[in-house]
Amino acid sequence: MASNAWRSMVRTGRFVRLQTVTLIPGDGIGPEISVAVMKIFEAAKVPIQWEERNVTAIQGPGGRWMIPPDCKESMDRTLIGLKGPLKTPIAAGHPSMNLLLRKTFDLYANVRPCVSIEGYKTPYTDVDLVTIRENTEGEYSGIEHIIVDGVVQSIKLITEDASRRIAEYAFEYARNNQRNSVTAVHKANIMRMSDGLFLRKCREVAENFKDIKFTEMYLDTVCLNMVQDPTQFDVLVMPNLYGDILSDLCAGLIGGLGVTPSGNIGANGVAIFESVHGTAPDIAGLDMANPTALLLSAVMMLRHMGMHDYGKKIETACFDTIRDKKVLTGDLGGKSKCSEFTEEICRRVRDMD
Amino acid sequence: ILATRVPPPAKYGGRHTVTLIPGDGIGPELLNHVRELFRFSCVPVDFEVVNVCSATEDDINNAITAIRRNGVALKGNIETLHTLPASHKSRNNLLRTTLDLYANVMHCKSLPGVQTRHNNIDIMIIRENTEGEYSSLEHESVSGVVECLKIITRTNSLRIAEYAFKLAREKGRKRVTAVHKANIMKLGDGLFLQCCREVAAGYPDIAFDAMIVDNTTMQLVSKPQQFDVMVMPNLYGNVVSNVCAGLVGGPGLVPGANYGRDYAVFETATRNTGKSIADRNIANPTAMLLASCMMLDHLKLHDYATMIRNAVLTTMNETQVSQVLSPHCTIHSPGVYSLRTPEWRSSLRHCISVQEASL
């Protein structure tokens, strides 16, 4: 694959630096949708070479669970990753792989743009919003105690640094992607100190980004308005739990996890883009999977890397295919195979040149 | 509904006394509609009005004492200002925890005459109302690090699950779904789920399943018809009840009730202050009126409750009403006929008169 890209570069006579991306195919339908994405990228002649890695938890020295060292080394070098769905085995003795990746690379921001897909009809039209969720602390700190028998306390942790970091990322994202407003979602009327701190940090950061409108809204009001009129929202920034709930709510508005892209941004410039649906073991290997989620995440990745033209090309081809409704996979309401769907997108991409 | 020892009602000379807390924003005007309608319909209920608006604890303590005295209250939402220090707790929360109003019940039903994206929704939401994330226990252990405690207890989880299943059985419902996040909060939500399962074992006629909260919201916006009765801890209840209220037509249409062992407080389901639409005569009185009907049912004044409820629902559905359009002032509920509140009110009184005449 790398040699083809090199040959096409030589033919055009332009020297385009080939960027390496770590690819983690994942489990279940992961491998087949990764292959689909690689095919489409090849058809679009994107100057990317893939480095495939596996993430199965291994026990390092001292009994601590960690990701395989070659995967870590690859990510540290390339700084960009594309990940398929990972299986979380129950009672395997180790934490979920997603959690391990998050901790290893300090992936503090989870970004999910939700845009209505023309051609995949849902009761909600014209959705165009982005949820930015703090991914490291909050309600998911994992700190729980049994005080006495029958009384459990879970600790929600909010820190100044993490709140400032996510707020800064949200405003930077809004500025870089020409978004008009950022809304902080909170419950500071009940959780006065914790969400109050989060809100204060957002307000402070907003001072440095006067070109972007900043609003605050209660979580319940956001939920209420979201299901009545999602077009009023632009960029939403929030702590961990609210982000989890709201990002899935917004995914539901546009059609579910099978068509929603997602990206995780870490400190030190690392970014891992992923599809958030499950591994679908019942259809794995049957060429029935829908690669849209992983493809759109890959498009997000291209935009992050600055390759906006390629990203736009592939995204347009994908949306056109879905809008046409002639070649659709089973979950989108059609009867075609994954390979046929992929081939249709490749064809459109090639025709665009 | 679920009381082992029912205190005597505040009833004298055939008339009940009910505490009325106007609150802030649209609360006062909505409750005025209720009072006016009760007066017009000759409902034997007198209201004891208690205003809660100062920054001290006195007002809310007076309100709590009044509710203890009367047993029943109808309230608007009291605003919580962030500018005040963190020691100033939410007044609404204080009221709920002090009176131990442990069950918040909300019935989301698609109303005829209201245009929404989804139809045939009929979900009962039972939300634990006193603990969970709303425990108001926070501290700053180190500068810049705040910890907020979420408390889940076996007693309260069993109590709310028991309430949910009893209510489901009473209303002839088939399935109860527990909403949780036990894959992440293994001990806390795990305990809640375990309690629900224990109670479910005692109700073999009612099906029980569990769903993770993020999947729940996703399912609610795509296929809300699959849900029957839902039971959940406090914060998820906040999210899910607001999503469901939005699905059936907005905050102006759904009533809510808070039940405890000894007391009951009725309000709108989504507890909005509605500051932006206050005093403009556009607030939708439906939610508060239906809440007052729930209150009348609680006081065993079923005839009056049915009469007012029918009048409200008929007014919403009536085709003559839709002719009276006013493009400048709309009732604040998308999907309901564009209509000024005064015209809506007069139509409502007309419906009540018709019903009274036929009795």
TrEMBL record, chain A:
Gene Ontology terms, cellular component aspect?
mitochondrion
**Which cofactors, if any, are listed as required?**
Mn(2+); Mg(2+)
Q: Provide the alphabetized UniProt keywords.
A: Magnesium, Metal-binding, Mitochondrion, NAD, Oxidoreductase, Transit peptide, Tricarboxylic acid cycle
Listed Gene3D superfamilies: Isopropylmalate Dehydrogenase
Q: Which domain of life is it from?
A: Eukaryota
List the Gene Ontology MF annotations in alphabetical order. isocitrate dehydrogenase (NAD+) activity; magnesium ion binding; NAD binding
Family named by the database record: Belongs to the isocitrate and isopropylmalate dehydrogenases family.
Q: What is this protein called?
A: Isocitrate dehydrogenase [NAD] subunit, mitochondrial
Automatic annotation (TrEMBL), chain B:
Query: What Gene3D superfamilies does this protein map onto?
Result: Isopropylmalate Dehydrogenase
Q: Identify this protein by name.
A: Isocitrate dehydrogenase [NAD] subunit, mitochondrial
> Mind telling me which PANTHER family this protein's record contains?
DECARBOXYLATING DEHYDROGENASES-ISOCITRATE, ISOPROPYLMALATE, TARTRATE, ISOCITRATE DEHYDROGENASE [NAD] SUBUNIT, MITOCHONDRIAL
Record keywords = Mitochondrion, Transit peptide, Tricarboxylic acid cycle
Which InterPro entries does UniProt cross-reference here?
IsoCit/isopropylmalate_DH_CS, Isocitrate_DH_NAD, IsoPropMal-DH-like_dom
What subunit structure does UniProt give?
Heterooligomer of subunits alpha (IDH3A), beta (IDH3B), and gamma (IDH3G) in the apparent ratio of 2:1:1. The heterodimer containing one IDH3A and one IDH3B subunit and the heterodimer containing one IDH3A and one IDH3G subunit assemble into a heterotetramer (which contains two subunits of IDH3A, one of IDH3B and one of IDH3G) and further into the heterooctamer.
**GO annotations of cellular component type:** mitochondrion
Q: Which residues form the Isopropylmalate dehydrogenase-like domain?
A: 17-325
What the entry lists under NCBIfam families is as follows: mito_nad_idh
